[in-house]
């Protein structure tokens, strides 16, 4: 790996969101409604019909500006954004996690001051899983 591609590892990790369409951009807006403005959180949207090689180049340009230990979150495992992140993770010091949801993004922003790399990815994955709830089942349990 060319160490000049990534900035110094003492910086707060960045968050790169890779999605089909503009889902990532909207998740950023939604998170900012809840926790306020977020720094170093960037969405790279895959356009309909976009060439995967062009998309990979755009994502690579963003990752080149991110500090070591940054995290890439994708919408769908096995999709072009996820596959792009997996390929580029060989060239950049980033963790990659799929199944992006709003709790994951908020957790990543809140924890990146103290965690990075795989530790951050594990915490974000747990937040994503914990954020999925069957609301009616919870309400039924509370009334029993």
From TrEMBL:
GO CC annotation, single: membrane
Subcellular location: Cytoplasm
InterPro entries the record matches: Bacterial_PTS_sugar_comp, PTS_EIIA_man-typ, PTS_EIIA_man-typ_sf, PTS_IIA_man
Keyword Nuclease in annotation: no
GO biological process: phosphoenolpyruvate-dependent sugar phosphotransferase system
Protein keywords: Cytoplasm, Kinase, Phosphotransferase system, Sugar transport, Transferase, Transport
Primary residence: cytoplasm
PROSITE patterns membership: PTS_EIIA_TYPE_4
Annotated CDD domains: PTS_IIA_man (cd00006)
Limits of the PTS EIIA type-4 domain: 12-132
SUPFAM superfamilies: PTS system fructose IIA component-like (SSF53062)
Keyword Cytoplasm in annotation: yes
Top-rank taxon, per record: Bacteria
MF GO annotations: kinase activity
The protein's name in its UniProt record: PTS sugar transporter subunit IIA
Species: Candidatus Fermentithermobacillus carboniphilus
């Amino acid at each position: 790996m060319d160490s000049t591609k990534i900035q110094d590892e003492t910086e707060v990790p960045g968050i790169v969101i890779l999605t089909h369409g503009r889902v990532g951009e909207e998740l950023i807006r939604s998170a900012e409604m809840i926790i306020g403005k977020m720094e170093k959180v960037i969405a790279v949207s895959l356009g309909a019909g976009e060439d995967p090689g062009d998309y990979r180049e755009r994502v690579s340009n963003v990752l080149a500006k991110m500090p070591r230990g940054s995290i890439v979150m994708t919408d769908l495992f096995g999709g072009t954004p996820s596959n792009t992140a997996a390929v580029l993770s060989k060239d950049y010091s980033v963790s990659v996690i799929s199944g992006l949801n709003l709790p994951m993004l908020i957790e990543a922003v809140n924890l990146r001051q103290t965690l990075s790399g795989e530790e951050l990815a594990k915490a974000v994955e747990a937040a994503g899983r914990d954020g999925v709830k069957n609301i009616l089942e919870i309400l039924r349990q509370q009334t029993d």
